[in-house]
Design a protein that fits this description.
about 290 residues, alpha+beta, five-stranded antiparallel β-sheet, two-stranded antiparallel sheet, 7 strands
Length: about 290
C-alpha cells in the first residue's frame, strides 16, 4: 500500500491551452433564448448530456441537446454568430435575433443527425479515452503503484486541451459540418469535449466502477475544485483531476480495491498541500511527453 512518500510530485502541462470563451451566468429560465441555471463550460449543468457511461464504457446518447447551445448564444462569440445570421434575415414577426438563433440551431441539429456525423461522434468516445490513456504515460505526472500496477493523476484541463486539439483536427473540416457558421462549428467541437468530460464525472468513475480507456488503463476517479491553472486559460470549470489506473482484466480483489481507494486519498492530500501558485507554476513549466 503506497504511502505519501510513494507519490511523484512532478507534473506536466498541456501543449495546447484550451481557450475559454466569454460567458455569463444565467439564473432560471426567462425566455426562449435563455437557458436554465448553469455555466457554459465543461458540461457543468443539469439535464441530459450528450454522452453517458454504460457498462464501464463511454457512449453517445444519439443526439445533442439544446441547452448548451442556448447558453453559448449568450456569450460573446455566440452573440456575434447570432448577429451574423440576423443580418441575412430581412424580416421576422418574432424578431430577427430570435429567428437567427432558431435558424442556427436547426442547421446545427440537422448537421449532427447525418449518418456521417453520427459515425464520427460515436468514435469520439473511444478517441477521448485514448487521450486519457496516452496522458497516463507522461513520466512527469504524479504517480504511485498499487498491487504492482501504476496509478496516475492528470489535471482535467490538460486532458481537455489535448482532446480539443485532436477533435478539432479530425472534425473541424468534416463535410457534414461545412455549411455551419464558423462560430457554431467551433462551439460544437468544444462542447463535444465538455460533454465527454461531464459524462465521465457523472459516471461516476471509481475503483468499484471503473470507466475503461485504452491499453488496460481505466479512469477510477474524478475530482473537481482544485485549481491547477488560471481560469483565464482553463475556464471556470477547468479544475480538478482524474485518476488513471492499470486495471486488471480479472478485476480487483477486495484488498487491492481498498489499497487503491487509500492511494487515491493520499494522492489527493499530497497535491492539495501545494499552493495554487505552486500548482500553476509546475503545470506551466512542464511539457507533454
Amino acid at each position: 500500500m503506497p504511502s505519501g512518500r510513494d507519490v511523484d510530485y512532478r507534473f506536466v502541462v498541456t501543449e495546447f491551452v484550451l481557450s475559454q470563451q466569454d460567458w455569463r451566468r444565467r439564473r432560471g429560465f426567462r425566455g426562449p433564448h435563455q437557458a436554465s441555471a448553469g455555466r457554459y463550460g465543461l458540461g457543468n449543468y443539469p439535464g441530459v448530456s450528450w454522452f453517458r457511461v454504460n457498462e464501464g464504457r463511454l457512449e453517445y446518447r444519439g443526439k445533442i441537446t439544446r441547452p448548451p447551445f442556448l447558453r453559448w448564444t449568450e456569450t460573446k462569440n455566440g452573440r456575434e454568430a447570432v448577429e451574423r445570421a440576423a443580418r441575412a434575415i430581412r424580416f421576422s414577426f418574432f424578431g430577427r435575433r430570435r429567428a437567427a438563433r432558431t435558424r442556427l440551431w436547426r442547421a446545427l441539429e440537422a448537421a449532427t443527425r447525418t449518418a456521417g456525423f453520427e459515425t464520427a461522434i460515436r468514435a469520439e468516445t473511444t478517441r477521448y479515452m485514448e487521450v486519457l490513456a496516452a496522458v497516463a504515460y507522461a513520466d512527469a505526472l504524479p504517480r504511485a503503484h498499487v498491487a504492482l500496477r501504476r496509478l496516475v493523476l492528470a489535471p482535467r484541463a490538460m486532458i481537455a486541451g489535448r482532446a480539443h486539439l485532436a477533435i478539432s483536427q479530425r472534425l473541424g473540416a468534416a463535410p457534414d459540418l461545412a455549411a455551419l457558421d464558423d462560430g457554431v462549428r467551433a462551439f460544437l467541437l468544444e462542447q463535444i469535449v465538455n460533454e465527454l468530460d461531464a459524462a465521465l464525472r457523472k459516471g461516476p468513475a471509481s475503483p468499484r466502477r471503473p470507466v475503461h480507456a485504452h491499453e488496460g488503463w481505466a479512469c477510477v476517479g474524478v475530482q473537481v475544485g482544485m485549481v491547477w491553472v488560471d481560469s483565464l486559460w482553463a475556464g471556470p470549470d477547468g479544475t480538478g483531476h482524474v485518476f488513471l489506473y492499470e486495471f486488471p482484466r480479472e478485476g480487483l480483489s477486495r484488498r487491492d480495491r481498498k489499497a487503491l481507494e487509500t492511494a487515491l486519498s493520499q494522492m489527493s492530500s499530497a497535491v492539495s498541500s501545494l499552493s495554487r501558485m505552486q500548482r500553476g507554476a509546475l503545470v506551466r513549466a512542464a511539457s507533454y511527453r
